[in-house]
Design goal:
Layout: H1 2-19, E1 40-50, H2 58-72, H3 78-102, E2 106-114, E3 119-124, E4 135-139, E5 142-144
Antiparallel strand pairs: 1-2, 1-4, 2-3, 4-5
Helix pairs in contact: 1-2, 2-3
Length: about 140
């Protein structure tokens, strides 16, 4: 019983620590005062790019802990130990695959020619009916019509 409580506490701590490592998306943030015209411009190009892919290992760790917890509930003695190890390995593999699937989406690289003559390139997860030549505004690292 003490082992279950220890594993549950370890999983909760790992989840709390790893949630700080979450990737919120590949966007570039620019701080611009509200009345600054440098945040307005015209879309020059839009390119579809493949998402980051890969993994940070967080999915494998959380999956491994969850699998170990589930495996620990099966059997007793040496069988319980084997089930715990097998559960940790299987959970790690599944967790890693889930993380990879979440990070492999498409992104859009949008080049904007600003009113002040500068160029900005913003990467965001959707284009929301944006097309080259559209008049846009950049707010918090995202392009809006």
């Amino acid at each position: 019983m003490k082992t279950n409580a220890t594993l549950a506490a370890l999983m909760l701590a790992a989840t709390a620590v790893l949630s700080g490592c979450a990737n919120t998306g590949p966007s570039q943030n620019y701080s611009t005062p509200q009345g600054d015209y440098s945040s307005y411009g015209t879309i020059d190009t839009i390119q579809v790019i493949q998402g980051g892919g890969g993994s940070s290992g967080a999915g494998a760790i959380v999956g491994g802990i969850a699998g170990a917890l589930l495996g620990n509930t099966i059997g007793s003695g040496g069988g319980r130990t084997a089930a715990t190890v097998a559960g940790a390995v299987a959970g790690g593999v599944v967790g890693n695959q889930v993380e990879n699937r979440q990070q492999s989406g498409l992104n859009y690289q949008i080049s904007v020619r600003l009113d002040n003559g500068e160029y900005r390139t913003i990467v965001q997860d959707n284009a929301n009916n944006l097309q080259p030549g559209n008049r846009v505004r950049i707010v918090d690292g995202r392009v809006y019509r």
